[in-house]
Amino acid sequence: MSQDLSIARIMQTGLLYCHPRTPLCEAATRMAERCCSSMLVMENDEVLGIWTEHDSLMVDFDDPTAVRVPIAQVMSRPVAALSPDTPIGEAAMRFATEQCRHLLVADDTGRPLGIVSQTDVVLNQGLEPYLRLREVRAAMHANPLVLDGRLSLSETARTMRDSTRDAVVVRCGELLGILTERDLVRFVARHPGTTPIGELASRPLLSIHVDDSLIHARDLLIGHHLRHLAVLDESEAVIGLLGFGDMLSGAEQFYLQDLREALEKRDQALAQSRHHLQLAERVIDASLEGIIITDARTRIEFVNPAFTHMTGYSLEEAVGRTPAMLSSGRHDATFYRHLWDALHARGYWRGEIWNRRKSGQLYLELLTITAIRDEAGEITHFAALFNDITYLRESEERVRRLAYYDALTDLPNRRLLEDRLSLAIRHAHRQSQRLAVIFIDLDHFKQVNDSLGHAAGDELLMQASRRLVDHLREDDSLARLGGDEFIALLPEIDTPEEATRVARRLIEAIRAPFRLGDREFRIGCSLGISLYPDDDTSVEGLLHHADAAMYRAKQEGRNTYRLFSTDMRAHNDRVLTLESALRETLESGAGLDVHYQPLFDYTSGRLCSAEALLRWHHPELGELSPAEFIPLAERSGLILPLGERLLRCVVGQLRSWRDARLDTVPVAVNLSARQFWQRDLAEWVRAELEDQDVPANLIGFELTESTLLDKQQQAIQILGALRELGCTLSIDDFGTGYSSLSYLQALPIDVLKIDRRFIQSLSEDGQGGQAILAAVTGLARELGLLVVAEGVETQAQLIALERFPVDRIQGYLTGRPVPADLFAANWLSGR
Ligand code: C2E
Ligand code: CA
Ligand code: CA
Fold first, then answer.
1. Domain housing 32
2. Are 448 and 484 in contact (CB under 8 A)?
């Protein structure tokens, strides 16, 4: 249906109007002359009413004065009006609701622009399918009124009115004629009511067969400018009359319902397309791709801002021209012919094309052109989308380098190293040779970064990598894995000693002082060596083993190297066994326990707090030390679920001690680096505490300096959040790492725990340990930190501590870590 057309397109504009005092016969005459079916009654530019053909039936033709009455007395009013942009579909609905056959089309000010009749609407409603399907039989008026030609006009009008017919068949001797409403209008003026209708009827009577289709009838009517047909049966007898109105009345139901559905759909579609349109507009505007829309003849109708950005041409400059304005002259006619062939055959073309910017500069674009077709399949538009890929092409080389080389040192990266290593392995295999992989890790590099800044750190890395390269053979290669980790690949070696010789050389090279600006700086490195085929035959295996050996070198004193050896393999196996055992244990929860060790006030000997320490008993592996499984859990990530379980357990314990009305003390929990840096640590702690309704000041956390060293600013934030909850924060094992009190000064912490080794040094003869202890405890006190002495084992140590400002004591002397119930029985008192 064409309901989206507005009625302005179908209304009749040749308006007839008259003054309200115009005699009816005069108005009717003018209507007949102009073949109009209606007359507007107007005064002072105002529409007062309307008189239509149909109203002519109301005229009393017997009364000669009836045709002389002013039209105002017989007109219909008020006149329903529509605005010219009303869709036809909506107008059709109005006819139904207003129960009329004509509607006035008026502008905003009420000025009449035209008239639409129901016939106009129906003719424009796309009724063809309906009319094609139905036969004349279904729409005709059966039993037409067949009147004798000698009957008077006034009698006939009355009969028509009474029987609500808009036409009658008139028998004039042998011939048949027809008389319609429209004829009556014509005669209102000129013929007295007594005229016999035989003289007035039009002849011959146009006819159609009863089983013809309605569409045929319609075409006949339109073709002859008529409004009625006689319907004949097989014997050519007149059995009915068919007028436009009849044809439409049946159709009305049909199209009204159809129309309602269509209108609803249209409204939905409109709302949706408006939404889509807005969306599409925004997408097009914001698109980083250049977009050109042309008409079918490739005249540019639209370009988006990205187009302007890339080509330099504004929308105004581009509209009306063709994309040839961008032509670079680099492509020949064949190129463009292929493009158009593809476009017409497949509907799109995609490829790279050189174009020219407004500035004259050439650029390469990746272009996609799509042909847009209408419902009939005709191309109406072309849409072109393109990206400037000039830069991409130029940077491809750079990208390739970035993918395989480290940006800072220009050394091969891990990817390229793995490629080279796998090549080298194949080569060594063919030649039955050995090769060595050396994992190199700079010691204390992070401290340089931290204290001297990243620029200095980068400079150090560059200098170090140059030294390493200088001390390798020509066929060896050096790669940077990231951070301060490097790999040297030594192909073609005969004995392991050859590899260790190189390792020693590298250590020496790094040991020499570095100059950073005007400062001299010393670092060391730890190396791990794996050998093909002795240790492994795969890329991953060799790298992994070299890493493990390096780790061992670090643990055993740094500035040294270790060969991956069979006992390290055994160690590795144990790590794997422990890891899978820990995984199982974490699932079942069996075998894990928490012990509590008391901390006492040095002076009063009063219980101050406790430290929670994990215990793991495995049915086959036996009692396992946290010193062994915590680092493993940390490396494998299992520390997170483990830590979760521990905290829940400790908080639950605190809760049950309180419920048992025991005087509980704060309990400190150890946090490893991964735990500390996990997301939303403070939020998680808060939720756990809230869950058991345990106050936050009953929970503390112990962290080592190394955990906090890397990212001081972020560390301060997390510590601050924990402290804000009310938790106590301790630095654990102080003195074993990169100890710097000035660094600690910036951190929001409460307690400093001096490592056991310092306490043990008290019972030794040397004075060094004591001097450090004096300095550290003194400064800690200055900073307002509580000082805890860890690992106090003997009475002698306890007494020796008297000389230092120590607040608390923790150790086997005063209390070993014990299970919760024993801890409560030994040290917690009831309230
Ligand atoms: P840590 O945090 O320094 O814990 C103190 C360790 O010293 C504990 O060892 C404790 O049993 C031991 N200790 C206490 N007093 C003495 C003493 O007088 N002499 C000696 N020689 N040792 C003493 P443990 O329980 O074997 O724990 C070892 C390490 O494992 C802990 O060191 C801690 O770093 C870690 N750890 C233990 N439990 C956890 C935990 O739940 N989470 C985390 N992340 N780490 C834990
Ligand atoms: Ca601790
Ligand atoms: Ca400790």
1. 7-124
2. no
**Mutational pocket test of ligand 1: of 582, 611, 613, 761, the residue with most ligand atoms within 8 Å of the beta carbon:** 613
The domain that holds 322 is classified in CATH as: 3.30.450.20
Ligand nearest to the CA of 791: 1
Nearest CA to ligand 1 atom 12: 791
Ligand 1 contact, 642 CB (< 6 A): no
What is the Cα–Cα distance from 682 to 724, expressed in whole angstroms? 9
Query: What CATH number does residue 164 fall under?
Result: 3.10.580.10
**Domain tally for the chain?**
5
Q: What is the pLDDT of residues 442-480, one digit of tens each?
A: 988 887 887 788 888 899 999 999 999 999 988 899 999
Place of tokens 């009306």: 320
Would the CB of 627 count as within 6 Å of ligand 1? yes
570 belongs to a structural domain: no
pLDDT of 518 reads 85
Tell the residue nearest (CA) to atom 20 of ligand 1: 791
pLDDT at 1 over 50: no
Q: Is residue 201, in this structure, part of any structural domain at all?
A: yes
One domain, residues 646 and 789: yes
- Ligand approaching nearest to the C-alpha of 753: 3
Q: In what side-by-side order are the strands of the sheet with 207-209?
A: 141-142, 238-243, 228-232, 207-209
The average pLDDT across 627-634 equals 90
Residue nearest to atom 4 of ligand 1 (CA): 613
Write the CB contacts of 620 (distance below 8 Å, at least 6 apart in sequence).
Answer: 581
Same domain? For 202 and 111 the reply is no
Tens digits of residue pLDDT in 371-415: 877 778 888 888 888 888 776 666 555 656 667 888 889 899 888
β-strands 477-482, 485-493 pairing: antiparallel
Of all ligands present, the nearest one to the C-alpha of 613 is 1
Q: What pLDDT shows up at residue 744?
A: 73
Nearest to 806 by CA among 568, 617, 603, 551: 603
Distance from C-alpha of 553 to C-alpha of 81, rounded to nearest angstrom: 97
Is residue 754, in this structure, part of any structural domain at all?
yes
Q: Is the pLDDT assigned to residue 811 strictly greater than 60?
A: yes
Q: Which domain-ending residue is among 364, 393, 422?
A: 393
